[in-house]
Amino acid sequence: VPGSEVDVTVGLTEDDFRVLDAGDSLNCARDKFDLQDESIYLDGNSLGAMPRSAPARLAEIARDWRTDLNRGWTEHGWLDLPLTLGDKIAQLIGADPGEVVAGDSTSVNLFKLLGTALCLRPGRRTILTEDANFPSDLYIARGVERMTGGAARVKAVPRGDLADAIDDDTAILMLTQADFRTGHLHDMAALTRGAAEHGALTLWDLSHTAGVHPVDLNGCDVDLAVGCGYKYLNGGPGAPAYLFVARRHHDTLEQPLSGWLGHEQPFLFDTEYRPATGVARTICGTPSVFGLATLEAGVDILLEHDITEIHRKSTALTGMFIRLIDQECTADGFRIVTPRKDERRGSQVSIVHPDAERFIAGLADRGVVGDFRAPNILRFGFAPLYVRYTDVWEAVTQLKDVARA
Ligand SMILES: *Cc1c(COP(=O)(O)O)cnc(C)c1O
User: Fold this and answer.
1) Separation between Cα atoms, residue 249 and residue 116, nearest integer Å
2) Which segments of 166-207 does DSSP mark as H helices, in order?
3) Does ligand 1 come within 6 angstroms of the Cβ of 106?
4) Is 228 in the pocket of ligand 1 (CB under 6 A)?
5) Strands, E assignment, 93-220
6) Could you give the CA distance from residue 402 to residue 399 in angstroms, rounded to a whole number?
7) Nearest-CA residue for atom 14 of ligand 1
8) Secondary-structure percent of the chain, ordered helix, strand, coil, rounded to 5
9) 136 lines ligand 1 (CB under 6 A)
10) Are 180 and 231 in contact (CB under 8 A)?
11) pLDDT per residue as tens digits for the range 178-233
């Protein structure tokens, strides 16, 4: 990991960060995003930066719309975008072609796949999850519980109790790989194995890992997954999300939002629903073409780089940030709640402080964009494609100033 060779006994200086930027194998990637030179954007885990190619892609679709009208659905591949872009996203998450569909929001995809899981495991009632999971994930699961009149029930337990809570009534273990508050990273392989030993399926939410972490869905034998398009995939505001279904479930999978574009032959306008073959049956309605186009712009950039390099830089950026906070800010009452172990940490660092909200506002005034998460968390996300090592130095320097102002 870059930075691990920096001598800790003498303390970090700004020069150490300059040297790391100069040797950064990804330092050409920042140019692919439209960022102001002086901006320090540590919120790419909330909304990723804009690919420079995105406006031209939007203009291209607008042009095709104007000139070709409804021929665009076939002539410009609009109708196939959920699957063609899904195949590109598959390369980022360890899935095979034909296992991923791009579209809808993460929340909607969660609903589809929870319904799928309950159908695939008849007789089992429990949706097992972590009590600190992302709120929307919990809300959707409870919505499924209500809709089934309690036939499905949500069991939300603390992280440390998850492995022991899996039992023969567990239909699905639903988890987010990296915690949005703390950045804690689950052991996907071990938890998935634990679920399989009890005959339970797994549904992983990759919203905070895809694009920064080498996710290996098939290597871990994951059954189902969803993820967000506008964070580390840089798909733009409200970009479509995606879902994954392992091929072994394709013939039997049924999903509750059985819309016409998941039909075997949508343009027969048959009154009987017959599901399309493969993952295409998870498609519900008409694809959001503009959103998919900017998502593709973001995904294309990721595919130009090596995900292990991206992850190595993510680990280095977060590790250096933690070391610098330890070095510079010990007297300021900050408590780092993100795991210090590299293999347990997503691409963010979260710090607890009673004045977190005021500090995040103060940082924004100084051009450093982080995120406040109630009630007391300062959250900094590190998108390795466009965050520089010197941004780490500058952010901590400004944070120290704000805390002492
Ligand atoms: C960002 C995020 C979502 C977003 O859900 P949408 O339905 O796309 O708004 C869902 N789950 C997790 C874990 C997230 O981080």
Assistant:
1) 10
2) 188-197
3) yes
4) yes
5) 100-102, 126-130, 153-157, 170-176, 201-205
6) 5
7) 207
8) 45, 15, 40
9) yes
10) no
11) 999 999 999 999 999 999 999 999 999 999 999 999 999 999 999 999 999 999 99
